[in-house]
Amino acid sequence: MTIRRILPAPSPFTQPFWDAAAEGTLVIQRCADCGRYQHPPRPLCPGCGSVAVAFEPVSGEGRLWSWTVLHHKVVAGMEEALPYACLVVELVEQPGLFFVTDRIGTDGIDSSQWRLGAPVRARFDCVVDGFVLPQFDIVFKEEVAS
Amino acid sequence: MSRWANAGKIAVAGIGFSDIVRRTDIPLGRFAMDAARAAVADCGLELSAIDGLATFPLAPFMGAANRNGEDVITPEFFLAMPEFGNVRWFSQAGDGMIVAAVHDATNALLAGVCDYAMVWRAMYVPSGTYGVAGAGGSGAYGSVGQTADGDEQFSAPYGCASPIQWHALRYRNYLEKYGKSRESMATLAVNSRRNANRNEHAIFADRALSEQEYLDSRMISDPLCLFDCDVPVTGCVAVIMTTAQRARDLVHPPAYLGGVALQTSVQQPTLQYALQDHTELGSRVSDKLWRMSGLTKDDIDVAELYDGFGPSTLYWLESAGFCGPGEALDFVQGGRVALDGELPLNTFGGSLSEGRLHGMGHIAEAVLQLRGGAGTRQVRDAQAALVMDGSPMLRGGGIVFTAQP
User: Fold this and answer.
1) Mapping DSSP to helix (H, G, I), strand (E, B) and coil, where does residue B340 land?
2) Candidate from A11, A69, A73 with C-beta closest to B132
3) Does B169 touch chain A (CB under 8 A)?
4) Is A82 touching B (CB cutoff 8 A)?
5) What are the tens digits of pLDDT across the range B246-301?
6) Where are the domains of chain B?
7) Considering only CB atoms, which chain B residues are within 8 Å of A11?
8) What CATH number labels B10-128+230-402?
9) CA pair distance A145, A133, nearest whole angstrom
């Protein structure tokens, strides 16, 4: 399967996120004044207007919030990955703090066991042209037990 | 805020449709001029009477239109035509859907900057896969090896690069959260198609749709199937707006603006905003409209609620208060939203079945219903209509029209 993903084009403002990902750390922008997290990052805190916003490490834990299996070409270069799934996870640090992840199968996608609220955990082994794309795995019960 | 001091002072006096077709080699400018001529004729005016122009000319998807007169129609297109030599004012809205242009024209008419404003929306179907632009730029991923900046650098690398995926992700959460089934949406899709079968402008005027066909249709981005997506079309709809006083001297009964409001809570059309709560954001628009117009949901006889993707109509029903959160799929069952039901909904077929005119079809239909010109789909004694354009979580806005000032 030949897949060409769209690559991030970081700005000086977002570069720290990608630098941290390359080191295996998920960082999310947080306000030092009110404590609110914000992703994607913003120049000022959308909660209190403070400029004291900076990336800081988060736990990498979250809950599955939604998913969709795509059957239609929307990205040139990812045709051979179809059908693939895009998932949204809600990080445990704050309600509504969403992060995107994907699942590309070799034989389609089986989403029958996916449930809203399922625990998810970050991993950092998805490397594309030097960028590490933080991804999330669904943690099923048997894995938790072991 | 009390009732809007200018409620009932501005009206839509005329409507003009071009032909509505799928893909064509005919330049969009010919459709736009047909719509303009039809709109002034509907008023009993000449094109030379038009002294104000406003539109929201956004491409049907990112990167899909950039040749003025061929695939996009900005004010510049009409300004270059000899019939429009009397134009004194124009506006090209960059956000807020076509409601922003109606809002701009309303303000200009109230300020006396122009007397007869033409507002239009022209749409075009480009070559290639719809939604995958051939040109470059952020949000357009039609060629291999592109990059994403801004918010999209955090979603597009994961193959999540199209509004249909944003809407599908929001819809899945909605269905799961409220324990609803996508199969219930068949009722809404079939209701819209039935209405389109009574609308000569509709792209699907002559094609029926059964619930089984809806259920059998292919998935695009699950749980959104083919018939949850509006149908891409080429065409133009224009309306003529003027003061209530001038409108009363023209051919048709005017449809008065009771209120017009933009979604001001969020502006950036990206995944992160599409995931937000629809009732919280959408009610900000509807609350403004109820306050401006002095009406409530119980006064609304006809609802034209945007359906670029079908679930947006559900979100607007809930955020405008017609039913509670999570109840819209139940609300639309049992004939409640049919032409003779409690709340006739998308009476012209919506974007799902008339065609993707990006909200202008909804506005034109509200006006037709209030002036009694909707033919075999006319709702009896329609006195007030609600139009909502766009998704409650993204760009857009709404208008309340009334048959009396």
Assistant:
1) coil
2) A73
3) yes
4) no
5) 999 999 999 999 999 999 987 677 898 899 999 999 999 999 999 999 999 999 99
6) 10-128+230-402
7) 149
8) 3.40.47.10
9) 28
